[in-house]
Amino acid sequence: MVDVSIVIPMKNEALNVGPVVGDIIATCDGLTAFEVIVVDDGSTDDTADQVRAMGDPRVRLLQHDRSGGQSAAVHSGVIAAKGRIICTLDGDGQNPPSELPKLFQPLLADTTGQLGLVAGQRVRRQDTTSKLWASRLANTLRAQILKDGTRDTGCGLKGFRRDAFLALPYFDHMHRYLPALFKRDGWQVELADVSHRERAAGASHYTNFHRAMVGFFDLMGVAWLIRRRKKAQPLRQTDG
Fold first, then answer.
1. What kind of architecture, by CATH, is found in domain 4-227?
2. 136 φ, ψ (degrees, to nearest 5)
3. pLDDT by residue (tens digit) across 197-210?
């Protein structure tokens, strides 16, 4: 039995696999029944070999035959997951695994059936000045248009119900808009402040220009999805 599935998208993160997965196991061991799903998104290094070498039955490996991006990797991991609760974090090691209980414990404890997402918000981010300013600008614009109530929707640390996530419309880069998408479907969203740390190894796969180009069109698409959401829901079926 698995309660929580922790999904990690990775591309060319061979140097980070061991430390990240090791920290996850150390954090979650004894707290809940969990599994770790590493999704190798078309790596050209030995990321997959590093996962296989762990030999831990709680650690699973999925591989894309080509790079599909972070949202595609998360989506593949969620589909394969055995847990009803999913947690995600970035594979570069900047999201401390020690923050994971802040995400899955509220979802496991929820008795209302209304909590769909617990979204991390980074504090004291350890990024370059240019990346911080670009992120601040993007978050400000997004918040004004979507009114999703979060200051940091790009944080990789998130916990959510598997069934609710799979009911969302899928598109590339959707992982950056989960608070707005969950609210669109009527789910309660909670926010949790989480720490952040410098990348220990490897290099970022994104540039500010790339984020800006795709971000504008994604933002307009999500705004359209919210405006066109299904407002009426069927009443509970009654016999007779």
1. Alpha-Beta Complex (3.90)
2. -65, -45
3. 777 765 565 554 45
